[in-house]
Each structure stands twice: as structure tokens, then as C-alpha cells.
Design brief:
CATH topology of the largest domain: Neuraminidase
Strand content: 25-35%
Number of helices: 23
Largest sheet: 8 strands, antiparallel
Radius of gyration: 32 Å
Number of strands: 48
Shape: globular
CATH class of the largest domain: Mainly Beta
Helix content: 10-25%
Distance between the termini: 42 Å
Structural class: alpha+beta
Oligomer: single chain
């Protein structure tokens, strides 16, 4: 693409070291010689025609290759540009080599900007473009004028590797370019393990018949580059006029193809004697440029004929139940198949799909069961529908009548968790239901399935030396050779779930919803009626509890069945934690139509409300109940509560409206500590510190002015996953408990954080969570006390004595003022006393800083964490106990453990009221009181109101 300058640096920086790690996974056999045969040059295709890494063409629909599927950060890098991508490769240049000086005058590159992101390079590597040269440093991003002569020289003996990506851009992309022209500061784009993006690729990149306007644009590239007032110009003038007349007659109708071809042949014959006589400013022969830009791409004779108008589809609005293997889909399927509306093939559709040769993994060198939209060719769609219809039965085992149309197929095959793009393309009106089940139960059941030998799918898998391959074949399975079964299954589950969630989120929210396995087991009638309402199918049966066992069940359901594989799960669960958290967050916050597509009996907006004791409201498996005194106290105090629940990915706002307590959920990734100042709110999350300001103008626009404080996101500071815990403001400085690095820190404009203080026994700043520093208390304008779960200078050393190894440290003196506590959290100074929650005992205590004496003020029914005061009353957050983390602590032995916020009178230790959560919210981290604010709102970053939240200086407003 021609630019007005040789080189433009784009305002991004990327983690080159992380990118280099992803590249290191590839074998030498994955690299291909350069398409033009340049010596010392090789390439690894990431996006190619039909996703085929062996196809170097630039004409045809582009899709990600299997190589890109293995590179999550490379996908994030591409997504950062907000562009549509064409052919994309890793380009490798050997040491002491050059790329060879050349220009890109092909039609494709005239339309595309070429983005370079250096990954592996050295200071001596130079990029030349026209009369300019530059060293592109690792992690930077550049585009350049491909119309000018350009080259790369690597004088070092080491290899240089760049990401080289072609794009037509977008409005957002060209805005980035404009910022680059103006030397805007580069924005770092760190790797986010929770962010699984789908790269947008181009489907159309060459015309069938070039439109006259585009032809003029291509001719102008030649003429503006030095071809005016020449015989070449005369030939182009003639072609342009005749082409416009022919296009007016035929457009893309194939009847006009002979005329179009004759015009092109006539122009080529007229140009041939001029070859070598006219050169452009970039030294390219003008005739060669015309052939590349105008003649060759003007007509695609070989383009497939338009499909005849299709007959009525026999299958309409099919329903696909999708999930990882062993998630309970058989029980779900067998239950939903009782609807009189649906038709099924009686079970899973392995043979229906894989009997089509092109869809069998053997035709893809057993890469995986992955299928994407490019696999849904017209021929395959026709065959697939025919295969399904041939096997269809209704609940009475009857077959469809001959020629019947509008059949509602219900299908479930776990392999389809890797096929959503294919199915969505093959059946554009398809609906999808994602069945969520706790990862422990699912992975444990997958382990059982492998060991049973009853779920073998590819007994003779080429290149596999492990146990016979069972269940679905996931991308990257070859890398699991030699791994333990627990590691194999963990990878299988996380890969399938990652692809599934990634693909579902690319669909319109109207096309998919989420179902809960636990709800299906405990309240099957209610859950099935809810799903049937979304799917628009009839339901006329009453279900019993428990549901009958599926024919694929190995052992009867049991809440603690996963514990049989506890040792294997200790290996597997840390490997899948990021994907598991994402799945939980999606389950807690499914697509919006899921909340409004409901049965007539559903309550209005149930996720946004609470009920009094004796009543229960549920939405997406979340409910809350409260006592009247709890709501009354907040109402009289003219206040509200902010409650962070990292486990479900929610910030909960508890507020009173019309005498009733309303629990309002906002989605963030692992929300933890909350810090308040008069007009701001700061929230710590998994990778970011989010800063919000109270915007009165926005507040008046929400809920007809009921909102009295609207906290609008105004900044996000990337820290990486430092395991942020509590946050406090000391003056204008934000103090963060950095648990992973065992210290107190603050925001730093350059680094992930700036250290402020650490315990004396912590000898170095390393990401080892040595003492599990977690809480901080401010006294008289300075940080004074912190809590930690152990006095340890070893990686995770606090775990050994978590039951009674907790400590409180005086920050000012570095002295440990209290020991022997059971998992202390949430230190606070209130009414001149130091308060601490002894979480492992479920207690609210005071600590005498002079001698460390502990006084028990109250006991509460749960793991106490999160503390706020209002006069003599304390709001205490409670969590249920996770056995995997809290095993061995006293609270784990209690038979009843609650989750919510308990109101305690500190004068006598009695419980004055409570707000209890049920369902998905099981763990609380922080509780903060918004004093004087009755009905706040906290906006998520993508909320529409954020785009209208302008804050201007008074001098600007007056103009």
C-alpha cells in the first residue's frame, strides 16, 4: 500500500519475550521456504487461504492456520489493531542475510497495509524503505510504504523473526496510524491469559469483475507514479471507457465474461510493445505494474458459479448442546429430547459427521476435531443435512414423513465444542446451549472415562504413544506425549472449553444461552422449562427428582464423587485455573438475551434484587435473601454496600429501594480489594487496578434519576497478576497489598508496581507468595498494620501452618505484634481499636498492639473476610469453605457455612441481621460501606453510558 511517508511506527508495544516463547514451540518442519525463494528467508503461516499452511496464495477466504491456534498471545497482538487480517506469517531471516530489495505492486498489496512486529532481532538489523532506514526494535509495531523499494539486512549471525501481517485496516486501525504519524506514546499490550480472542479474517479479497471505480483507482496508482502522458496512459484510457460500458450492461453476470476477457486481451496486446520503455518512480516497469494492478485482477473467470436458489431446508433452527466431555450432556440431552418439538438421531452424531470424509480428522493429518466456517462448503452442508435427516426420530421413535421440512434437530456430541463456527455456518439459524458444570466434577469424570476404556475414539492415533485416545481430539494433543493422565485430561478439558467459549462469544447473544448442571440435577423441571422457553420448543411433561441416570453414566452422581480422584486433581486443577475462572464468569454473566428470554412465571429482573426471609428469587443460579433489620439499617444510615466476590467475577452493590434490598451485579475479572475516597472508587482485579470517578451527570440519566452516584471507569492500570488483595488510600497515594510479591506497592507509570514496604523477613521481591500478605489498616493518615497468613520466606511457605500461623505486623516498627491467628484478614482501625477477622475460626476480634492480646467479639457462620464499620455495627463478609484451600482449618469442620454479609453489634457480639447469597456466589473478599450514598451504580467499561461520560475543565465548558 502506498503511504505518504516511508515508515510509521504504530503506538503499541508488545511483550517480545512472551511472543518468542510461543514461537519456540514450533519445529523446524513447520517453517516453509519463502514463496519467492529468497535465500535465507523462511516463513511460518499463521493466516492463509482456507487456513491451509501449505497455501501461499493471497486470493481466497483467509482463516487461521493450526499454528495460530497454538499462539494465544499472537492472537491478542493481532486483535489489538482492531483490523481485518489477510495473509499473515512469521517471517524469519537467517544471519548474514537480506530479504532482497523489492516493491510490492501486486493488486493484493495495493489494497493492504503490511504490519511488522519484530519479535527476535538485534540492534544491527536495519529496515530500508525508499531513502529511509530504521531499526525496528523487538515488541514495536510498524507499517511502511510497500510501493517503494524496501529491504531488510541482518548482518549478525543470529536469526531475525518478525510477525508480518497484511490488513485492509478499519476506521480504528487508521486512527492508530494517524496517532503513529503524530508520535503518540506507545501503549503496552501485555499478555492476558484470560483473554481468548477470535482473530477477524477476510473472506473477500479479489473481485469477480472489477468495478469501474476500483479500476480507476488501480490505474491511478500507475499514472500517479510516473505513467502520465505516455502511450501506457492512452491504452488505459481506452480500457477504462469500454470497461465502464461493459459493466453497465453485465455487471458480474457471466454472460459478460467473454466481452470482459476480449477487452483485457486487447489492452495486453497494446501494452506489450511498450514493455521496458516506461518506468515508474519506484523503478518498476509500467507495463508490469498495469498487469499486476489492473489486468490480472480485473476478471476471475474461474470463480465458482453462483449457487442456484436453495430448496427449503429440511432442518430449521437446529439445537446444539455444547460442552466439554463428561459435563452431564447425556442426561441433559435425554431429558430435553422428551419435548414433542424436537427430533434426534438417538445419541451422539460421531458417524453422522465423520462419515463425510472431508470432516474426518484423518483427512487433516489428525490435527484435531476442530472444524471452522471454511469447512462448511455447499456440498458438505447438503450431505450433512441428508445424513441427519436419514437418522432422525422423535420421542416416540417415529421418523419424519417424506419431504417434511422445518424439523427441529436436537444434537449433542462433545466434539462439537470444537465445531461451533462450522455448525453456525452450516446452519445459520442454529441455536446453541452451553452446559456448565464445575470443572472438578467434569475433569474427575473424564479421568474415569479414560480409565474405563469405554470411550476410546481413536485407538490407533498416529504418533501417539500414550493410552488409547479417549473422548475428543483437541488441538495440540501431540504435545501431551509422555504426560501423566491427569495432565492429558486437564489439557483436553481446558483446550475444548477455551475454543468453545471463544467461539460462542463470536455469535449473536440471541443464538446461545447457558444451562447449569447443578440446576438440572436439583430443579430439573424449572431448568428445562427455562431452556425450552429460550429455544422456543414445547414442554409438556413433569420431571421427577432425581432424573434417571444417563446410559453413559459410569457411577451414580454424588456431590463428593470427584474426591476419588483428589490426587490427580491436585495436578490437573492448577493447569486449568484460568480457563475455569473464565467459564465460571461466563456462567455468572451469560449473554443478555438469556436473562430476558424466560418463562411467563419468571420474576422481573431477578438478578437485580433481593427478597426478605422466607422468599427466594433466582436468576442464573444466583439468589439472595435478607433480614428486615439489615435493609432497615442501611436505609436509616442512608448508605449502601460494595461487595467483591472474585470467585464468581462480580462486584455486588447492595442498596435499598422502596424499603427493599436490591443486589445489583457488575462483572469484573476476579474483583478483590476496594478503596474509596470522597469522589472516587478503586477496584483491584486479576490484572488491572480500575479507577472510577463519581459522575453526577451520568447518575441523573440512569433509572430515572434514582441513582445518586454513578462510578464511571476513568483509568485502568496494568499490574499483571500480582494477586492484588486489599487497597487503601493514604492521602492521594494508593497502597496495594501485593500478595504474590509479599509487599505493599503503589501504581508505577513504567513498571507493574513500585514497592513501598515489605516484612523484614521477606528478603527479596519474587512472585512466590511467601507469607500471603493480605490486609492493610490505616491509622492517623499512615499505613500502620498488615495481616499475613504466615511468617515465611519460602515459596508458599505460609500453607504449612495456615491453621494457626497467622500474624499481624506493625508496619512502622516492623514488629510482629500478634501471632497464632487462624488466617487473619481485613485489619481495621475503628473507635481507637485494632480489629481483625480471624477467618479460619469465623470470628471478629480485637488485637491489643501493646501485647498482642486477642479478644473475641463475635462468631459468625462462615469464613470471615471483608470488614466495614458503621458506628457500633460491623458488616462482615462470609464465604463458604473451599476444601482444596482451607482443608485443616477450624472453620472447615463446621456443618453450616454461609456466604454473604452479616451485620454484628460490636457492643454485645450479637448478630443484628444478614444478607445471604446462594448459588454461584460462594466467596466474598471485601466489603466497603458507601456512607451517605443510598443507590449507587458502578459502570462496566463497555457500558454505553461510559461513552457519554465527559469531564471538562470549567474554562472549556464556558466556551
Amino acid at each position: 500500500m502506498r503511504l505518504d511517508r516511508e515508515l510509521i511506527r504504530l503506538p503499541f508495544t508488545f511483550d517480545a519475550a512472551r511472543l518468542a516463547e510461543e514461537i519456540a514451540q514450533f519445529d523446524e518442519s513447520d517453517w516453509r521456504p519463502h514463496p519467492q525463494g529468497y535465500p535465507g528467508n523462511s516463513a511460518l503461516p499463521l493466516i492463509a487461504v482456507h487456513g491451509n499452511p501449505d497455501d501461499d496464495d493471497v486470493k481466497g477466504p483467509m482463516h487461521a492456520t493450526p499454528h495460530l491456534d497454538r499462539c494465544p498471545y499472537l492472537r491478542q497482538v493481532l486483535a489489538a489493531f482492531h483490523a481485518v487480517w489477510g495473509r499473515t506469517r512469521l517471517m524469519r531471516l537467517d544471519g548474514n542475510a537480506e530479504a532482497t530489495a523489492h516493491c510490492d505492486t501486486n493488486y493484493y498489496w495495493a489494497q493492504h497495509a503490511r504490519v511488522h512486529v519484530p519479535i527476535v532481532t538485534s540492534d544491527d538489523v536495519e529496515f530500508f524503505c525508499g531513502d529511509a532506514k530504521v531499526h525496528m526494535a523487538a515488541g514495536e509495531a510498524w507499517i511502511f510504504d510497500t510501493w517503494r523499494v524496501h529491504n531488510v539486512i541482518n548482518p549478525r549471525p543470529t536469526r531475525r523473526i518478525h510477525l508480518v501481517a497484511d490488513t485492509i485496516g478499519s476506521a480504528a486501525f487508521w486512527e492508530l496510524v494517524e496517532r503513529g504519524r503524530n508520535a503518540a506514546p506507545a501503549q503496552p499490550v501485555a499478555y492476558d491469559p484470560l483473554r481468548l480472542v477470535a482473530v477477524t479474517t477476510e473472506a473477500v479479497n479479489h473481485p469477480i469483475v472489477m468495478a469501474p471505480a476500483e479500476q480507476v483507482a488501480m490505474m491511478s496508482l500507475v499514472l500517479d507514479a510516473g505513467g502520465t502522458d505516455t502511450p501506457v496512459c492512452a491504452v488505459l484510457d481506452s480500457l477504462r471507457e469500454d470497461w465502464r460500458a461493459a459493466y453497465a450492461r453485465f455487471g458480474e453476470n457471466r454472460d459478460g465474461f467473454p466481452l470482459y476477457r476480449s477487452l483485457l486481451d486487447r489492452a495486453a496486446a497494446a501494452l506489450d510493445p511498450l514493455r521496458g520503455k516506461v518506468r515508474l518512480r519506484n523503478h518498476i516497469d509500467a507495463v508490469d505494474a498495469v498487469h499486476s494492478l489492473v489486468l490480472r485482477p480485473a476478471l476471475d473467470d474461474a470463480a465458482p458459479r453462483p449457487r442456484p436458489q436453495q430448496r427449503a431446508r429440511r432442518i430449521e433452527r437446529p439445537i446444539f448442546l455444547v460442552c466439554s466431555p463428561r459435563s452431564g450432556s447425556s442426561m441433559f440431552f435425554e431429558t430435553l429430547a422428551q419435548s414433542p418439538t424436537v427430533w434426534t438421531v438417538g445419541g451422539e452424531s460421531h458417524q453422522v459427521i465423520e462419515s463425510i470424509p472431508a470432516l474426518h480428522p484423518a483427512q487433516r493429518r489428525f490435527h484435531s476435531n476442530r472444524l471452522d466456517a471454511s469447512d462448511a462448503t455447499p456440498e458438505i452442508i447438503t450431505q450433512l443435512e441428508r445424513n441427519f435427516v436419514r437418522e432422525l426420530r422423535n420421542r416416540d421413535r417415529r421418523t419424519p414423513r417424506a419431504g417434511a421440512t422445518g424439523l427441529r434437530l436436537l444434537e449433542k456430541t462433545p466434539k462439537n465444542s470444537l465445531r461451533v463456527p462450522f455448525l453456525a455456518e452450516a446452519f445459520p439459524d442454529a441455536l446453541f446451549v452451553y452446559l456448565y458444570r464445575d470443572m472438578r466434577d467434569t475433569i474427575s469424570s473424564m479421568l474415569d472415562a479414560w480409565r474405563s476404556g469405554k470411550f476410546i475414539t481413536y485407538r490407533e492415533l498416529p504418533g501417539w504413544d500414550g493410552p488409547p485416545w479417549s473422548l475428543l481430539l483437541t488441538p495440540g494433543w501431540r504435545e501431551l506425549s509422555g504426560k501423566s493422565l491427569a495432565e492429558i485430561v486437564a489439557s483436553q478439558w481446558s483446550t475444548a472449553t477455551r475454543y468453545l467459549l471463544d467461539d460462542l462469544e463470536q455469535l449473536s447473544p440471541d443464538r446461545w444461552c447457558v444451562a447449569g448442571y447443578d440446576a438440572l440435577v436439583s430443579e430439573p423441571q424449572k431448568e428445562i422449562e427455562r431452556i425450552a422457553s429460550f429455544l422456543d420448543i414445547e414442554w409438556d411433561r413433569t420431571l421427577t427428582t432425581p432424573l434417571p441416570l444417563s446410559r453413559h453414566t459410569l457411577t451414580e452422581p454424588n456431590r463428593d464423587k470427584w474426591k476419588r480422584n483428589a490426587d490427580d486433581l491436585k495436578v490437573a486443577l492448577p493447569l486449568v485455573s484460568d480457563v475455569a475462572e473464565r467459564a465460571r464468569n461466563l456462567f455468572a454473566h451469560p449473554p443478555k438475551p438469556f436473562a430476558v428470554r424466560r418463562s411467563p412465571s419468571a420474576v422481573k429482573n431477578p438478578a437485580d434484587s433481593s427478597t426478605a426471609i422466607g422468599q427466594r428469587q433466582t436468576a442464573n443460579d444466583f439468589s439472595s435473601v435478607f433480614t428486615a433489620p439489615f435493609a432497615s439499617f442501611l436505609d436509616q444510615a442512608k448508605s449502601s454496600l460494595l461487595i467483591s466476590t472474585y470467585q464468581s467475577g462480580r462486584l455486588i452493590i447492595a442498596r435499598v429501594a422502596d424499603g427493599k434490598l436490591n443486589t445489583h451485579l457488575r462483572a469484573f475479572a476476579s474483583p478483590m480489594g476496594i478503596a474509596l475516597s470522597p469522589q472516587t472508587l478503586t477496584l483491584g482485579t486479576k490484572n488491572f487496578i480500575w479507577h472510577f470517578r463519581n459522575h453526577s451527570g451520568i447518575a441523573t440519566k440512569i433509572e430515572e434519576g434514582r441513582v445518586d452516584a454513578a462510578y464511571v471507569p476513568s483509568a485502568a492500570y496494568g499490574t499483571g497478576d500480582i494477586r492484588v488483595h486489599e487497597l487503601v488510600y493514604v492521602g492521594n497515594e494508593l497502597v496495594i497489598v501485593n500478595t504474590r510479591f509479599s509487599c505493599l506497592v503503589t501504581i508505577d507509570p513504567v513498571n507493574s508496581f513500585r514497592e513501598l514496604w515489605r516484612p523484614r523477613f521477606i528478603t527479596e521481591i519474587v512472585a512466590e507468595d511467601r507469607c500471603h500478605l493480605n490486609g492493610v489498616a490505616v491509622h492517623e493518615g499512615e499505613v500502620r498494620y498488615v495481616t499475613a497468613l504466615g511468617e515465611s520466606n519460602e515459596k508458599a511457605g505460609w500453607r504449612a501452618n495456615k491453621a494457626d500461623g497467622g500474624i499481624v505486623i506493625d508496619v512502622k516498627t516492623h514488629e510482629i505484634i500478634a501471632r497464632g491467628l487462624s488466617m487473619p484478614h481485613s485489619p481495621r482501625i475503628h473507635k481507637g481499636k485494632l480489629w481483625v477477622l480471624e477467618s479460619g475460626e469465623g470470628r471478629l476480634c480485637t488485637i491489643d498492639p501493646a501485647n498482642g492480646t486477642k479478644t473475641i467479639v463475635a462468631e459468625v457462620p462462615g469464613f470471615a473476610r471483608g470488614l466495614a464499620f458503621a458506628g457500633p455495627y460491623a458488616f462482615i463478609g462470609l464465604s463458604q469453605v473451599r476444601e482444596s484451600v482451607f482443608e485443616g482449618i477450624p472453620i472447615a469442620k463446621r456443618t453450616e457455612r454461609m456466604c454473604g454479609v452479616w451485620l454484628v453489634d460490636t457492643r454485645d457480639g450479637k448478630i443484628a441481621g444478614f444478607l445471604r447469597f446462594e448459588g454461584i456466589v460462594q466467596e466474598i473478599f471485601d466489603v466497603q460501606l458507601l456512607s451517605g450514598i443510598r443507590y449507587p451504580e458502578v459502570l462496566e467499561p463497555l457500558d454505553d453510558y461510559v461513552g457519554a461520560a465527559f469531564t471538562l475543565p470549567l474554562s472549556e465548558v464556558a466556551r
